[in-house]
Structures are given as structure tokens and as C-alpha cells.
């Protein structure tokens, strides 16, 4: 009796397959060697991503950081997620021919409406294992932002989780900017 093996993708193979059109028009990401198809983006999710980009990009333009919107980040050789928004060290030209690495990321943001469970179960541990210092999960259905800090790389979890309601403000790591949670939850 033979056993079947699961094909484990590397980030390099994943990128080559995407360039070759293997995934068609599907939005996909790579988590721990598995290719996951992302759920279609509903209007509230898309509006929140646009609002966040509208807030962050002009406010951080003069600082030595890059804001990415729905762009891939390379966490390791088997993980290349597609956060809704991310902030990395350095000017945008630094990433002209590669994706930001885990050590360059200051913040990853996941906007969650129908995807909250998957974001918390699958993506958050990947971010923690890679040592991403801060992750915001914008929980649209709950009306709050779950701010995760202090990653435990060995346990793939965050030691500090803070639920920030509408009246709170959050500091954008590595910058001098604060963002009102209410602006994220419009």
C-alpha cells in the first residue's frame, strides 16, 4: 500500500507558478508551504483597506518606511502571506526587486470580516513565528482592532493582545504616527 505525500511549496516555486499564470486571477498566498485562495473582498473590507492606505501613505511619506497595500511579504522560505497593509523599514525603492522580509516588517494589518477565524488561527501564528513585532487585526464585525505585540517566535504566538475600541488610538510602530481606531472602523 502506498501513501500519498503532500506537495510543499517554497516561496520561490510559488512566485514562479504565479508568474506563469498557474493561479489565474485568484488572489492567493503561501502559508507554511500551502497555497491558500483568499476569499473575495467584500465592500466593507475593501473600504477599510483604502481608508487605512489613505491615512498611512501621506502621513508616513517623509519617514524612512514603506507602506504596502495588499502586497506580499516573505516571512520565510515557505511562507509568503498577503497582508492587507504592511509597513516596512526603508524607502520604497528598497523593495523594487524583492518583497520585504520578516526582519524588515514593523507592522502587518489584516482586515477581517468573514475571515476573522482564519486570520487568527492561520496568519497570526505565522506572523508571530517570523517575529513580526506588531500585528493589527481590524475586526469589522466586532468593531475593534486587536493589537498583537511581543511575538514569541518559538511558540508562534503573541504575548500581548489588546482589544482597542473606537475611542482608542494606536501607535504605528517605528514611526511617530498615531491612528484613531474609529478612523479604521468607519
In CATH terms, the superfamily is tt1808, chain A
- Separation of the first and last Cα atoms: 57 Å
The biggest beta sheet reads: 6 strands, mixed
Apparent shape: globular
SSE-based structural type: alpha+beta
Radius of gyration: 16 Å
Fold and architecture overview:
This protein has four helices and ten strands. The chain is of the alpha+beta class and 186 residues long. The protein has one domain: tt1808, chain A (Alpha-Beta Complex). Strands 3-4-5-6-7-8 form a six-stranded mixed β-sheet. The protein has a two-stranded antiparallel sheet with strand order 1-2. The longest helix has 18 residues, at 43-60. The relative contact order is 0.14. The model has no long low-confidence stretch (mean pLDDT 93).
Summarize this entry quickly:
This protein has 186 residues and is of the alpha+beta class. Helices cover 24% and strands 30% of the residues.
Show the helix and strand layout:
Layout: H1 11-19, E1 28-31, E2 34-37, H2 43-60, E3 65-69, E4 85-89, E5 105-112, H3 116-129, E6 134-139, E7 144-152, E8 157-164, E9 169-171, E10 178-180, H4 181-184
Parallel strand pairs: 5-6
Antiparallel strand pairs: 1-2, 3-4, 4-5, 6-7, 7-8, 9-10
